[in-house]
Fold Carboxylic ester hydrolase.
Amino acid sequence: MVWIQGGGFEFSSTAAYDGRNFARDGVVCVVLNWRVGADGFLDLGDGQANVGLLDQIAALEWTRANIAAFGGDPGNVTVFGESAGAMSIGVLLSMPRAEGLFRRAILQSGAAHHALSSETTQRIGGFLAEKLGVPPTRKALAAVPVQRFLAAQAKLKADLIANPDPERWGADVLASQMLWQPTIDGDTIPLPPIQRIAAGAGSMADVMVGTNTEDWKLFLAITGVIGKVTERDLAENRRVNGFPPLAIYGLPPETTLREYRSHYPDSSPGELLAAVETDWWVRIPAIRLADAHAMAASATSARTYMYEFGWAAPGLGAVHAVEVPFVFDTLDTNSRLFAPLLGTDPPQELADAMHAAWVSFATTGDPGWPGYEPERRTTMVFNTGPRLVFDPRAWERELWKGSR
């Protein structure tokens, strides 16, 4: 199993992930570093876009060539990742250069929708060069000291938040607030990843994809914004402390508010905004990926599975990233990155169930519940009492139909 960590395509560290309990259960766990930020996703129109993803491919090639020496099976590789790591896997499923490098894929809170046009990424690359006062060339940018380079990235992100002009940045960048993303360059990424997957790319790989019930609530909660959002902010389509207005997600604010309020009658305005963001960022992309893969894989022997993580972390809920220590079965040895999310008594039985499902899927292609097909959309909900449900997000799927 090869883990690709998250971090918004802008930061990451392998130090937070301990694979020893996969090894305990007969799985060789590989954790890799890859270039992020402008270092990994700068596009200057010079044919060198997406080097962060090419790092991941290089690591998978190394794994195929060398993992047998560590007791692994090069013919039975599973990539798994969370957030930008899962988004990376969604792109890898579509990339010609990644074909055949893995047999299975697990995508946790990320799918195959976050990739930008080369026009957008090249414009951002030009903005970075302007900020540094150098020509927009690899040579000139490589000569900039690292700290100055990182400071310019931070200043560019501050510009994005302070001046959310869609003509300058593009709607996809404004919605995601992510300057550094994979580029649809026509070469390494020929087309939008979800289009390639719907057309059959990745259809030979088994896929498991899922989200957390309140995924994007994490970011509004840790910034304190969740308590500052008002009904008027939502009704008047306002930005709140740098968080985009509802309309940026491609749905009419009035219709969106009415639907979400009807399904979450007791939620605060901040919680409603978090629910919309969860659906735009990860839930709707996960459903669309599962649908596309299941349809394409009907011509192969590959399988598709869907899950939802529902355990509510104390004071937060079932938010982004909280499932990771359960998957790794590291509740008792957890790093400081995840410990603040777990409270004092996270349920070990849930870690037992999730970790076993991930190991079973990587080993056999079967996590222990029925596969996903668009007619039933079978979904395993992981909580202290795991249960199967069918098409649990039907109203969201219908509401977001046709949106980007």
